[in-house]
Amino acid sequence: MSTVNRPVVTEFGTKCYPDPCKNIFSRFFSALVPSDLTDNNFGNIYRLGDELFCTSETCFVWKVDEDSLEALQRLDLNKLVSVNLASAHPITEEDGTTYNLGASFITGLKYHIVKIPPPIKGVSGLKRATVAYQMHSSWKTMFSYYHSFGMTSNYIIFVEQPLLVNTMRLIASRVKGYSFKDCFDWVPKEKTKFVVLDRSTGQVLRTRFVSDPMFFFHAVNAYEDNGHLVFDLIGYDDPSIMDKYYMERLRHEDFDTDTQGHFRRYVIPLIQENNQVEGNIVSLKYTEARAYWQTNNTVWLTHEEMGRKGYDLPTINPKYQGKKYRYSYGSGNFEQGACRNAIVKLDIERREMDLWRESDTQYPSEPVFIADPEGEDEDDGVLLSVINDTDYSRPDFLLILDARSLTEVARAEVDPSVRVCTSIHGCFVSS
């Protein structure tokens, strides 16, 4: 961009312009296949074995040196496993195998679950990645936007939410100058579909699980319990949260409270298809989430909400990934509601919420949970969060909280003359 003084790469909310350095044939191919989507990997940073990667939601990931933070290598998932887009939230199992959600639209609209083995003998796991499972889009020219998914030891849960990526518009983006977000259509009449894939067979369950239209970025956790899948996420009534992050609105603090994230629990009963039982078919006593048979082998889900609205960026003790758990943490970030400027702890069992908040000029990043290696309880550990302060007389700092009580353990301050970039997600890298 510094060479031609304009964006030539499509960003999430920024349109691009044709690159004058490309010849006519290169530009024609780029117009049909937007392969030069951004590799500005601001979305997340995660480990694959002993390797560290930065990612967004395109097919590009950057391998990073964990000591110097030098960008070592750009990997193209489209060339490795033929996915055009990939989630920023892979899930790693206890044996080190990682799974991620991707999509392809060149040979038909499909969602893919990519299996990434741990690196061995210096060979990156990404370079040995394979497509483990495949699901087809419910639409011929559109596919659902996704940011994360759920996984248990036996099932994968993919939410086909009615925020759809219009592939015709995506293909035309190079000619029309669309940003990625310009290619979205919110179609609430399509409802929300919970696609459940059996990992042992690789097949999607034939029973359709649907709910009212909703939007979400982040799954919290999923687990199996007595013939049910319990799936928790931070949900919104619609995707207008995306519009809040335009710079103009942030500068004017135009961050209304109309649409706020709320912890939602959906329960999917794993019962025989077409087993037309009357009434609620969720038998778990500890939840108000419900499920009801409808016609055409369809089950209608209603969710339970917990805690207060107004936070996102959820995290848990990673030892409880895919298992029944009790505590979830999150950040109020830029929200203006009850969780404004706060780090949140939700006790799911007691339906109680605690907050850490120091100043209305401070904005916490996603809290990262580090378990106490000698701890016995789920919340034995600490939380790390980067705190940005808009009062420039005060320093930004790394906050360390006791995860049980949300009391401060320590902080590492940066000189006020240096401002730390606002972060979204992060990870802890042990020395």
From TrEMBL:
It holds the Pfam family RPE65. It comes from the Eukaryota. Its cofactor is Fe(2+). Fe cation binds at residues 89, 147, 218, 425. One of its GO terms (biological process) is carotene catabolic process. Binds 1 Fe(2+) ion per subunit. Belongs to the carotenoid oxygenase family. This is Putative beta beta-carotene. It comes from Ornithodoros turicata.
